[in-house]
Amino acid sequence: MNTIRSVSDMQQWACATREAGRRIAFVPTMGFLHEGHLALMREGKGRGDYLVVSIFVNPTQFGAGEDYQDYPRDLEGDTEKVSSVGGDIIFAPSAKEMYPSGYQTFVAVEKVTQNLCGASRPAHFQGVTTVVAKLFNIVKPQVAIFGEKDYQQLVTIRQMTRDLNFDIEIIGMPTIREEDGLAMSSRNKYLSSEERKQALCLFNALNQVEKLFQGGEKNPKKLIDRAAEIIRVQPAADIDYVKVCHPETIEDLERIDDKALMALAVKIGKTRLIDNRVLKN
Ligand code: PAF
User: Catalytic: 37?
Assistant: First the structure.
């Protein structure tokens, strides 16, 4: 396995690989890899001749006062993990390599980024789509794999890929959870042991909402109230949003006809966690 740090070396490898008629599968990450990332990589292994994993904590997707500086980093541990699933290349550029001085171009997807995390973290998705567009041009994959835990991110990247005619297949993979149901996230590392227990309220809320929905409750307000009630029992929990929206347009729903996305963002202490469930008849 090779670690590549420069954009031009990565592009050269990608061009040569494509010229040889080989298929590149790509998993973009911000590192501090966990089982959720490894599941994306195993999927990538099966979908390409070569698996490229990027590890880049992208400054443009963090707002002022967010955790860019503190975001956990462990390139050595990550390298072992990528190697353990048979990854071929790690692309790990510096921030300067990706955003050299004088950088001034950004990619913004308009509508699907307005609600949920886009409302709470204004420049976040513009940072995500900008870096993913750049990574697509650098790694030149035929297929890229993303997790459904970041559901709005996946919808946004699908939209960008269509709109900008990237010739790349986008694959979404189900959320991987800890044994008790907490969605895996690099940010779980921030939780104290007491907060870790309370963090389960997100998964519990989704389960209760699913039960209500399957029992015939189709009124988003009732589902939202029930989820919020379960989360608020936990003293460390502070709700950012609890919403029911259309799974493709990400607009709030007044009534559920066929399917809906229940999306949660909750601060547990200082740690902001997200989770979601697609509710289907
Ligand atoms: O999901 C993530 O880890 C990041 O948002 C991504 C897609 C790697 C872009 O920085």
Answer: yes
